[in-house]
Every structure is written in structure tokens, then in C-alpha cells.
Amino acid sequence: MSALTDRLDAIRGEGRSALIGYLPVGFPTVERSVRAMVAMVDAGVDIVEVGLPYSDPVMDGPTIQVAAERALQGGTHIVDAFTAVRAVTQAGAPAVVMSYYNPMLQYGLERFAQDLVVAGGSGAITPDLTPDAAGGWLAAARARDLDTIFLVAPSSTRERLHLTVAETTGFVYAASLMGVTGERTSVGAGAERLVAATRAAGAPRVCVGLGVSTGEHAADVARFADGVIVGSALVRCLLDHDDEDAALDALRSKTEELARGVRRRT
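Given the sequence above, the corresponding C-alpha cells read:
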């Protein structure tokens, strides 16, 4: 068990789903991004995904891409993600890093895992890494009791679901629809079926991301998922306001809206 699974199980015991918030470290600056993550925790986010900006994001939609590009232009480095993780855990929430595989590989898998542990992180989400190609990362993470979080999608076969569930710890990340991240008018209709299929494959915890942007969306997904993952709608709060106080006010307001949504689960 990790801080992540402990928190998810405790929240399930409350009869609700967890709110998981994503922000990329380094946007608009490292310091401001860290303060924004802490503000999310204070406003009701249960778990934080610390995004590691990458120049070739295959999963990220336009909102997150813009923020990541600006973060990279500002000189954001992998070590800044560990700074953010430390701040989030000190604020009282479990933290996981969401990273594409190449930065982890270039940094060194053993070094990445060790620095994540030292920072207090629970694990990593690797959107472009499949379990059958993750031998090096699985070994480094398991040696340090870090959660290895892999993704499933509506296109995942039964065989792929079983393979992913077998190698995933923490929670399985269920992408609610095909495509990239972003704010949408509705969550994919197949999300509930995907969660059910993933649980049938043996997953004890399944959290849903992609397309959740309102309290109504959060309440809908909270009916059937262990966690509701929100990224673009939160990043948008920082993109729309150059003034830090205004950005944080918008971020807190959106977080509170989403937190009310996950707490409406019946």
C-alpha cells in the first residue's frame, strides 16, 4: 500500500470518488506552478498529478500543450517536478508524476525513481509506455514501492486490459475516449463500460480522465469511477489570467466546483 492507495481507499470509504487534479510544473513559472498545486489541494483536490512538460506530447491537447511549451521555454527541468511533488505532499495530498517515457529514460530510471521517493511521491503515470515494454521502469519502481500507473482506452482488448491490470499499482487510468486531453461538452459515453471492463479484469481501483471539465461531468463520472481526473480545465484557469492572484482565484473556484461534483455521488 502507498499514500496514494491509502487515500483512494479512505475516500471510497467515505462513499465518494476522489478528485485528481493535473497541472504541469513550470507554467507559468516553477514557483507559480507549485503555488497553484498547493492551492488546488487547499480547495479540495485529493490527489495531484504533477505534469512533466515534454516537447512531443502525444496525449496532451492544445491547452496543456501551450502550457508545457511555455514551461519548457522557461527552462523547466525534471528536478522541478520533484520540487512540486515535495510541496504537494507537504500540503497533505499524495502526488504522482505524469511523464512521457523519454525524459525518464534520459534522466535515468533508477535515479528518477529514487528522487521521486526522496521527494515523497507515490508513483508515476506513463501515458506512452505500455506494461509489456516497461521492464526497466517496473524494476526501478517496484524496488522502491512506487506505484506504476498505466492507461487503458475504449479500444483496449480484453487481453490488453488483463495485461495492464496485472502490472498496474495505485490505480488504472481509464481514458474516457479516444483522442487527446481537453475540455469537452460531455464525457465519452463508453467511460462507464470501460471502467466495468477494467474492474472485470481485476483492477481494484479505476480512475477516469479526458473530457472532465465541469462539476456536472465530475458528478457523472463519480457514479462509477474511483477517481475523477481533471487537467485542461484547471490549466485553463492559469492560461486565462496573467495576474497570479486572479489565476489562483479562478483555479480555486474551478477546483471547488469539481470537488462539489465528486461529493454529490450517491
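Residues 178-185 have pLDDT under 50 and may be disordered. Try to locate this feature in the C-alpha cell string yourself.
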